[in-house]
Amino acid sequence: MSQFKVNYLGCGSATPTLRHLPSCQVIDYRDNLFMVDCGECAQLSMRRQRLKYSRLGHIFISHLHGDHCLGLPGLISTLALTGKEGGVVTIHTTADGADIFRRILGFFCRETPFDVRYEIFDPKATSTIFESDALTVTTFPLYHRVPCTGFMFAEKQKLRHLKGDVVRFYNVPVRDYARIKSGDDWVTEEGRVIPNAVLTSPADAAVSYAYCSDTVYDERVARSVEGVHTLYHEATYTDDYSDKARKRGHSTASEAARIARAAGATQLVLGHFSKRYADERQHLREAQAIFPNTVTAYEGLAIDLL
Ligand SMILES: [Zn+2]
User: Fold this and answer.
1) Is 64 helix (H, G, I), strand (E, B) or coil?
2) 231 and which of 142, 162, 186, 265 could share a cystine (Cβ 3.0–4.6 Å)?
3) C-alpha span between 93 and 43 (Å, rounded)
4) pLDDT digits (tens, 9 = 90+) for 228-279
5) Beta carbons within 8 Å of 175's beta carbon, 6+ residues apart
6) Which residues contact 9 (CB under 8 A, 6 or more apart)?
7) Ligand 1 centroid to 14 CA: how many Å?
8) Does the pLDDT value for residue 304 go beyond 70?
9) Is the confidence at residue 11, as pLDDT, over 80?
10) Contact 21, 281 (CB under 8 A)
């Protein structure tokens, strides 16, 4: 059973087409659902992918272009009618976003059986906007035609594993386990220091996922996501439209791959494909020439990170 999974609900740019829906992803971390962008049809795609409405607690909006946020009224209305009783849905957005969504949702979704809250972030800043005991969500700036923000979902440093036989050999009391797992040495009653490395084995690697919504190619993005495990990066165009990409504040597939390579990512997922393409084979070819471990996103794709 996956503990950290990304579900791709919408992988295209602009309005829904027969091939792609507008941007929407749902990150499932230990059964808590975090939506990133909310393109039209989000609520239908959630149902199709068997993601429970009742588990959705947070929605992060990267920027105020319709293909990234116009699904909100439909989603919140549907949640209100079915599936979510009580609790809170927090919409993370800019001050302008909160102002607009308050008015739209205030009109169409007046009576929800749950609270809708707004948390405002500065799109130019890097800041941690969500934190639980195991996960953080941090913003970082992207470079688009309007203020645009990326989101990094990162597990916190994990605890080291106790070596059961060694711990039993030294009769370590249970009350000291937590400190040892976080890295402390242990001292016996006689004052002998048992080094942590004797008592434990290394922690599992913390996993991270970065969402780079609409952006022009910019090396600052690579620095913001340095060391990320899985990078989602928009790839609206292929190389033959690189001028158009720059003018429209978008990237090509090979530019996305250069960001992944510079960041030292393990895996790259491409998305936000322009409707001018009949398929994404050319995107994949161009990206893999630079960063081989690349996949193209599609509606219904789910990637287990853990
Ligand atoms: Zn945009």
Assistant:
1) coil
2) 265
3) 19
4) 999 999 999 999 999 999 999 999 999 999 999 999 999 999 999 999 999 9
5) none
6) 21, 24, 25, 26, 39, 41, 42, 45, 46, 49, 299
7) 8
8) yes
9) yes
10) no
Indicate which residue of 28, 37, 67, 214 is catalytic.
67
Active site residue 218: no
β-pairing, 88-93 vs 115-120, is parallel
Tell me the longest C-alpha to C-alpha distance in the chain.
Answer: 74
pLDDT above 90: residue 110: no
Question: Is it the case that residue 179 has pLDDT exceeding 90?
Answer: yes
Q: How far is the CA of 16 from the centre of ligand 1 (A)?
A: 14
* For residues 195-214, average pLDDT: 96
**Predicted confidence band of residue 83 (pLDDT cuts 50, 70, 90):** low
Q: Are strands 186-187 and 193-194 parallel, antiparallel or unpaired?
A: antiparallel
CA 245 / ligand 1 centre spacing (Å): 12
**For position 131, what pLDDT does the model report?**
97
Question: If you measure from the C-alpha of residue 24 to the centroid of ligand 1, how many angstroms do you get, rounded to a whole number?
Answer: 13
As a 3-state breakdown, the chain gives helix, strand, coil percent values, each rounded to 5, of: 30, 30, 40
Stretch (H or E) spanning 4: strand 4-10
Q: What residues contact 129, with CB distance under 8 A and at least 6 apart?
A: 60, 92, 119, 121, 137, 138, 139
The verdict on pTM exceeding 0.85 is: yes
> Residues near 150 by Cβ (< 8 Å), separated by ≥ 6?
62, 139, 140, 141, 142, 210, 211, 212, 213, 215, 221, 224, 225
